[in-house]
Amino acid sequence: MYEGLNVRSEIGRLRKVMLYRPGNELLNLSPDTLGPLLFDDIPFLEEAQREHDAFAQMLRDEGVEVLYLDELVAEALDAAPSARGAFCERWLDESGLCGRAARRAVRELLDSIDDTRALVDKCIEGVRADELDLSSSQAASLADLMLTDGNAGSPLVVDPIPNIYFTRDTFSVIGEGVSINSMLSRTRRREGVFGEFMLRYHPEYGGAPQWYTSSQPHNIEGGDILVLGADVIGVGISERTSPAAIDELAHRLLWGGPVSGIERVYAFSIPHKRSFMHLDTVFTQVDVDAFTVHPGILGTLHVFELSRGGRPGSVRIRRLDDTLDVILARALGLDAVRLIKCGGDDPIASVREQWNDGSNTLAVAPGRVLVYQRNAVTNDILAREGIELLEIPSAELSRGRGGPHCMSMAFWRDPPPRMMTKVTG
User: Fold this and answer.
1) 72 burial class (0-12, 13-18, 19+ CB within 10 angstroms)?
2) What are the beta bridge partners of residue 7?
3) Catalytic residue list contains 98
4) What is the pTM of this model?
5) In this structure, is residue 423 part of a structural domain?
6) Are residues 247 and 178 in the same domain?
7) 197 CB-near residues (< 8 Å, 6+ apart)
8) Higher pLDDT, 95 or 328
């Protein structure tokens, strides 16, 4: 019944979503690699998997079909005979592996894996030096020699991809199409390879209109993209998303015709620092007329509206000087919206719980949202505001610096909420 891609709001009844269950890539994290791999700590894998399984089951209990990224990529590669070899080469290109002999050895390892799902999992897990037959006598370059040198060599030949359980970021469903995002950091650009091949070759999801491609030179990440309504999206100007990328995305959406349906793009400039990272770490929609918001951005946010200009292909930009609640109400065609503060008016609770993604929620229906259990202050405030909460255990998942919205990529939602009655229970 629910085929293809269709997302025209953040809170319409969620029907289909893509996740990734954390795997052995977390076991290849070490204190020395945390910084480059964008982690602050090493999650305990078994507990992270239990928490993620609980998250997935909560979604299923709400009637949501749960898909998994690695399974979809494997299905896509199996569907196209030439795709597997091209995928391996593209993944190697993005791996940062320079040594010719090492690249050859890694490719041989990948080719030895018959099962496609196992191949995809290996590419996510990373490649250790002890999995390869590498010795200094085989070195074809200085880069090879450094990999095999007992003093300088690393246990890892290719780093793991631990951020991949945040499926929101590498591509974004907007309407019936996708933005295949150009990630800022080298380690996350490898995630884009999985999305590219899935969206090119998968029998059900391949061939969707593309509003942006990862080959574009300007960075944009999915956590900065919020589909606010059938004809309007919000995009964060953030640490990870550049104004130039928003210019390009807006142009394609605004002039994309009925398949896009977008009439306005709102660009929200937020502070460029790790604790904020993406737009969805400082506010997400929880009901038809309500958002949870980090109070630290109120009064400092700069917002711009992009719409079609008078000439074909042109874009009109104007700065909006109203408060955030007024801007959001106008964007959604409402008289007013409620901004529910993460942590309330407690300055310590607000920054602590924003750091643990108290503002990062996933709506399964208007007024019914998944949240991290650990953000007790914010959750109590949301409940008192009439929001129904599904609390996810989150001691380990939260160590990756992303919440329920970050961990999910909606594939299909029912029509925008203003066309529906509020759903409860």
Assistant:
1) buried
2) 175
3) no
4) 0.90
5) no
6) yes
7) 73, 76, 77, 83, 86, 87, 90
8) 328
Within 13 Å and on the Cβ side, how many CA atoms surround 111?
10
Can you read off the two tokens belonging to residue 184? Answer: 């800022």
Q: What six digits make up the tokens of 2? A: 């629910």
> φ and ψ at 207, to 5 degrees?
85, 10
**Averaged pLDDT, 199-215:** 92
Identify which of 216, 231, 230 has the alpha carbon closest to the alpha carbon of residue 180. 216
Distance CA(294)–CA(66), nearest Å, equals 29
Same domain, 225 and 115: no
Give the tokens for residue 366: 């208007």
Distant-in-sequence, close-in-space partners of 331: CB < 8 Å, separation ≥ 6: 228, 229, 232, 234, 264, 266
Residues 5-18 have pLDDT tens digits of 999 999 999 999 99
- Greatest distance between any 2 Cα atoms in the chain: 73
What is the distance between the alpha carbons of residues 279 and 300, in angstroms, rounded to a whole number? 14
Q: Is residue 4 part of a domain?
A: no
Nearest by Cα to 125 from 192, 73, 70? 70
Contact 182, 212 (CB under 8 A): yes
Mean pLDDT across the stretch 96-112? Answer: 87
